[in-house]
Design a protein that fits this description.
Layout (H helix, E strand, L loop, with lengths): L2 H17 L14 H23 L5 H7 L3 H32 L4 H16 L2 H9 L1 H4 L2 E5 L5 E6 H4 L2 H26 L3 H9 L4 H31 L12 H12 L2 H30 L16 H11 L5
Antiparallel strand pairs: 1-2
Helix pairs in contact: 3-13, 4-5, 4-9, 4-12, 5-9, 6-9, 9-11, 10-11, 11-13, 12-13
């Protein structure tokens, strides 16, 4: 028998084996889900109808929208809105960390002050708080620096310090700090207490434990809700009219609308800018979550070479923040 014939027989034998009925053979097929496709088609049609109706509706006056979208006054309002958002959120973040640490303190005074701050600023409307900060110069005409319950060395006019912009910034920051502090506290408590104990056993101070052990792990829990708070704060800036602060985006667009008697297109201008800024914040949130989520996504990285001897001990101590 030639090799050619042997090859033909092998192919024929392999084909015969494939044609054999093997018992218990599983032919996996995806389960048909017609309901999902029907729902997707219905949702797609409704979305297309909604978009078509919004775009083609002449009452929205899209020409006016594009005319004022990049208006000089509108862009100035966008800038002030961003400044209020970033500034107040930065102040609130620092205060929230301090308040969260105070809530975990064993000192009754620190824990009580933190609890009262959170209770008060979460329990009263932000609009009411902004009105209060707008009237702070009436309630406290002067701010004095000196010995408590004693003579004052420096006395300043409150009206000169708490301008409308400063009052809006402080009012937003204090209100936001009350909410962020609970988020930070939840993140700190999510870290296993055993890691604190192990760090203390290594001789690390409380500050080093917080900065190098607790906070890096807690950020994975803190970032998502804190990012939502930042987006909410962006839209809360529209309430600073209560101070009154009249340079942010919502007030500027309302002023233009009242002047030209076209409220709907100017509302759309404000909405578009809020959506643009929110989209940018959401992109930043995604990168932050990815950064602080490293090591928790189930992916394993290549093991680093282990260093022995005095050099290895020094490097490990340096990574932990200890003095070798």
């Amino acid at each position: 028998m030639t090799r050619k014939n042997e090859g033909r027989q092998d192919k024929q034998g392999g084909q015969d084996k494939k044609d054999l009925d093997i018992p218990n053979r599983i032919h996996a097929r995806p389960f048909p889900r017609p309901g999902v496709w029907i729902a997707a088609i219905i949702v797609g049609i409704l979305a297309a109808m909604l978009i078509h109706g919004v775009v083609t509706n002449p009452n929205f006056q899209w020409k006016v929208v594009w005319l004022y979208l990049f208006n000089e006054h509108v862009l100035t309002g966008v800038g002030w809105t961003l400044l209020l958002t970033v500034g107040s959120f930065a102040i609130a973040t620092v205060l929230s960390v301090i308040l969260a640490i105070m809530r975990q303190s064993q000192n009754l005074v620190l824990r009580g002050v933190s609890w009262f701050f959170i209770w008060f600023f979460r329990g009263t409307p932000v609009y009411t708080q902004l009105v209060f900060w707008g009237l702070i110069a009436v309630l406290v005409p002067k701010i004095s620096l000196g010995i408590p319950f004693g003579p004052s060395f420096v006395s300043l006019s409150t009206q000169d310090i708490f301008t409308a912009g400063v009052a809006a910034l402080v009012g937003l920051a204090l209100n936001e700090a009350a909410y962020l502090s609970e988020i930070v506290r939840a993140g700190l408590e999510s870290v296993d207490p055993g890691q604190r104990e192990a760090s203390q056993a290594l001789g690390m101070s409380r500050g080093q434990i917080m900065r190098r052990i607790v906070l890096p792990q807690a950020m994975r829990i803190i970032v998502p809700p804190m990012s939502n708070e930042a987006i909410g704060l962006l839209k809360t800036t529209s309430l600073v009219l209560a101070v009154p602060f009249t340079m942010e985006l919502q007030f500027v667009t309302n002023s233009i609308a009242n002047r030209i008697y076209k409220p709907i297109p100017l509302l759309l201008v404000a909405a578009i800018w809020y959506l643009v800024i929110t989209s940018i914040l959401m992109v930043g949130q995604t990168y932050l979550e990815r950064y602080f989520g490293r090591g928790f996504d189930g992916k394993t990285s290549a093991a680093a070479p282990v260093e022995d001897g005095q050099a290895g001990k020094a490097n490990r101590a340096r990574n932990l923040g200890l003095n070798a």
